[in-house]
Amino acid sequence: MNRETFVRHAEQLLPRTVFAPLSIRVERYDPDCFQVALDIDDRHRQPFGILHGGVSALLAESAASFAAAMSVDLTRFIVAGVDLNATHLKAKRHGTVVATARPLHRGRTTHVYAVDITDEGGELVCAARCTIAIRPHKAAPSPTP
Questions:
Q1: Arithmetic mean of pLDDT, 76-100
Q2: CA nearest neighbour of 45 among 97, 86, 85
Q3: N or C: which end of the chain has fewer CB within 10 A?
C-alpha cells in the first residue's frame, strides 16, 4: 500500500480507536521515524499527578506498530506487538510528549523498534523497545458443501 493510501486509511480508523478518547495524534507518518504525540491532561495522569506509565507504553507500542505496518504489505501481513519494555526516566505533569519509533531490526517475521518519548524540550521521558510480530493473513476457510 502506498504512503498516501496508508495515511488516508489510518486517518479514517483512528477516530474509532483508543487514540480518540486520549487525544493521541500522529505527528509523522514515516516507517523509519514514526511519531505519535499527546498533550498531557487529567486523562493521562496517575493518582500522584504525573504521566501514567501505561500511557507512555501505549504511545511506544502505537508508534512501533504503525512503523511496522508502514513497512510491510498489509494486504498480505498483519502486525502485532508481542513484547514491550519501557523505562520511565522523567516525571511529567504537563506539556507535550512525542513518541518516536525507529527500526533496530526488520526481519521477515519480526521487527524491533527503539522508541524514545521526549518532552517539548527534547528531554527523554521514557526509553522503550518494542518487538512486533509480522504474520501472514490466515486464508479464509473454504465453504463446506
A1: 97
A2: 97
A3: C
Residue tagged active-site, from 11, 61, 120, 123: 61
d(CA 135, CA 110): 9
What's the pTM value of the predicted model, to 2 decimals? 0.92
Structural element, H or E, at residue 65? helix 53-71
Domains and CATH numbers, the chain: 3-136 (3.10.129.10)
Active site residue 61: yes
Is the confidence at residue 23, as pLDDT, over 70?
yes
Nearest to 27 by CA among 113, 129, 99: 99
